[in-house]
Amino acid sequence: MRRASWTLRAVVVFYLAVLIGLPVVFLVAKAFGSGFGAFWREITQPDALSALKLSLEVAAIAVPVNTVVGVGAALLIARHKFVGRRVLDVLFDVPIAVSPIIIGVALVLAYSRLGWFGGPLGRLGIMVLFSPVGIVLATMAVSLPYVLRSIVPVLLEVGQEQEQAARTLGAGRLRIFWNVTLPSIRWAVLYGVTLTIARTLGEFGAVLIVSGNITGVTQTLPIYIYDSWDQRFDVLGSYSGALVLALISVAILAALAVLRRRERRLLVDLA
Amino acid sequence: MGGGSALIVGYLSIIVLLPIAALVSHGLSLSVATRGAGAAFWRWRVSVGWRTFYDAVSAPGALRAIWLSLWLSFSVAAVNAVMGVAIAWVLVRDRFRGRGVLDSIIDLPFALPTIVAGVVLLAIYGPDSPIHVDLFETWMGLMLALLFVTLPFSVRAVQPVLASLDLESEAAARTLGASGGRIFFSVVLPSLWPSVLGGFGLAFARAVGEFGSISLIAGGVGRTTTASYYIFNLTSGFLWTDAAAVSAALLVISLVVLVTTNVLSRYFQTRTLS
Q1: How many Å is the maximal CA-CA distance in chain B?
Q2: Residue of A92, A84, A226 lying closest to A151 (CA atoms)
Q3: Distance between CA atoms of B184 and B217, rounded to whole angstroms?
Q4: A132 DSSP β-pair partners
Q5: Which residues of A touch B9 (CB under 8 A)?
Q6: pTM
């Protein structure tokens, strides 16, 4: 029994080291391989900075919108009974159940000039393909479910008694939301927002399809990393950009861990 | 209900439902003709362009890409199902220094953007590998990338269930003289099956659709072109109808897998409870 547990422990540590630990260590080594100065030059060159800026701008739109929609949808699903509630619940998971590439193709076939609504949108002067509008749409689609998924279990467990008590005491719907519901789900909301930020900053496949990959105009940071490797053969640029995003991910993981300590009902469920 | 819910359904339709509908319609070359006079919907005749769909999906490159995605995803989900149980076991039952570090490492593939995962793997298993293991443009490279991104699904599906098992039945088996292996296979594993299957389904679905982490290590040669990479190639050549057709096929595969594992997992759950 003792030896068996040692073997198992060794196998698990080895697997995690080969699959996750060592690769991350070598990323850091490669990014700093030519010195910190070279790393800094890579991440402060104009193309890298404009990619970072676009990524942050897209997040600045997609995260608030998906937070409001997520909270609204969570309240709808957890607090109301209506025909099609199960269907709505399942439909919110579609963006993470299918390939981001498929989401990208679907958006193009709906909103580009060759799609269903491309004609009318074009006449309004809105171009979705090869433009930041498409990037925002694609990002909103793939990061849609996280706020909802974080809040619903907490809402169900907290129950409605306090909300009903507030209602009997004459509080209006908005007042109940701000003073009763929101305080009980605030950590869950923050958790969902953190997951949404992670997904928003990292989305690649769907954005690649709709963006047309124009340097300095439609390149988000993930696409810049891809382009540096695949098209410009600027391997150091790729490693450096990847390290920046990896550091953001570590910060996000730390934030998630803190939030999980505040609220036990939260799961690391990006699935 | 009311205005708020209409807004939510509207938003969902704009960013997800209408695009997916457009994709399926495009992929199957749906066309609507009205029969007789008037445009009322009972006069509509929807015809499907099976021929175009079939040609797009049965092209040699398409079949090979879909087959590659299927067997890779199956193997990856299977390997991580086994490793997921092993890792969950160590995290829940074992006590040693550094266990907390292992626990937080599991979530890294979740939080790491997929393209970063791709670059991270190339840093050690790429063309200029510091340990001289070059998996660039090989199926093993793809497999490694997919194992990386799906690991959290497999571990986190099993871990909470393993933690909630009560230790009494295991202790009973031990007093009755069962060996460690026997206890694991006849007492612990039967109650883990539903969650292992659930994790398998999630990992499989994720692997079938995965693009970012394999986009660099695949290198763009035929033998490492997975289904999602193939669709991407079609869009680069502006072959949107073919891209839509293969996407629709991939969509159906993902859905079938998710539904099947869901049903199986429920079947095992009810069997264990009764």
Answers
A1: 82
A2: A92
A3: 38
A4: none
A5: 88
A6: 0.91
* Across A186-199, average pLDDT: 93
In chain A, residues with a C-beta closer than 8 Å to the C-beta of B97 are none
Provide the 3-class DSSP secondary structure of residue B44.
Answer: strand
| Mean pLDDT comparison of A189-203, A228-242, B127-141, B173-187, highest-scoring range | A189-203
- Given an 8 Å threshold on Cβ–Cβ distance, is A101 in contact with B115? no
Across the interface, whether the CB atoms of A246 and B116 are under 8 A apart is answered: yes
The answer to whether A14 touches A6, Cβ cutoff 8 Å, is no
Instruction: Give chain A's mean pLDDT.
Output: 89
Q: How far is A169 from chain B (nearest CA, A)?
A: 22
Does residue B29 come out as left (phi exceeding 0), alpha (psi in the -120 to 50 range) or beta? left
Query: H-type helices in A144-215, by residue range?
Result: 145-158, 161-168, 173-176, 182-202, 205-211
State yes or no: pLDDT of B242 exceeds 70.
yes
pLDDT at B169: 86
Beta carbons of A128 and A121 less than 8 angstroms apart: yes
Residue of A8, A91, A268 with shortest CB distance to B12: A91
> Is the pLDDT confidence value at A2 over 70?
no
